[in-house]
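User: Hello, beginner here. Can you help me understand these amino acid letters and fold codes? It all follows right here:
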Amino acid sequence: MKKMKLYEADDKMIDLISDNYTMLQGLSAFGIRLGFGDKTVSEICDEQGVDCHTFLTVVNFLINGYAPKETDEKISVQTLLNYLRASHRYFLDYQLPSIRKKLADTLNQNDNLATLILSLYDEYAHDIRKHMRYEEKTLFPYVEALLTGEQKPDYNVDIFSKHHSDTTGKFHELKNIIIKYLPHDGLTNNQLTATLYDIYNNEEWLSNHSNVEEVLFVPAIRIMEQRLKSNDVSYKISSIIKKTDRREPLSEREKEIIACLIQGMSNKEIANRLFISVNTVTTHRRNIVRKLQIHSLAGLTIYAIANNLIDKSLFADDK
């Protein structure tokens, strides 16, 4: 029986599980091992490398529907990603095959209606596998890229959310068909009842999983997208500086040529200004690109400003 309360970091983990045994699978998905004695939630999370705030957010959401604000920046996207991946593995590799075996053992294989029901289960299972594998091949790699600071221009979490559907309706239809139309004898009644109970639990698990994605994961990804967009310029400047700091230093002549390029001068004009040949200017420009790995005039301008090669006032707005 679920105990309706908000669990906190200093609550004992054993109390949380005793009150809500359905969270056992959640522990496994978070990578939390059993045998934690009387330690608190915070102690267990710290010991086993799980973000405590994110763990409690999921727990309180699944137990009593408590959802945080969509602007909760403390939720760890990496922790949620690990949790959802592990949940997929549990469901696809264990839960679906287990229910299918129980259903097959219960049904009379010589009964046409029973055979159709088993085929219907296989069809639904295939659709759910397809749904989860789409997330694993499209959404999850996208989130991993975001975590490294990369934002893909042709995809965002709103595209995923727009096409994200709840798959629980498939099992809802299956269990209703079994209850209403499947004939059975007294010997298989207990097996069938136990299998139906598993399908009901399976339906609830799918609903919870879908809600965690939509209510917790999607907003957390959206926050990360917005943060990357707002920090895009400073991030690029920082990346340029970090890359160039590790490379061979520029010569004084190369610095002079960068200053000329930023002022819009051609190779011939630079040669005349510095009393060198055009070929020498070309050689210096190749060396600059090799050393800095910067190919654009905008990139050179950022580098020059960041390293005080030119006067910033040259780029100030006219008054």
The chain has 14 helices and no strands. The mean pLDDT is 84. The two ends are 72 Å apart (CA to CA). Residues 81 and 314 are 47 Å apart (CA to CA).
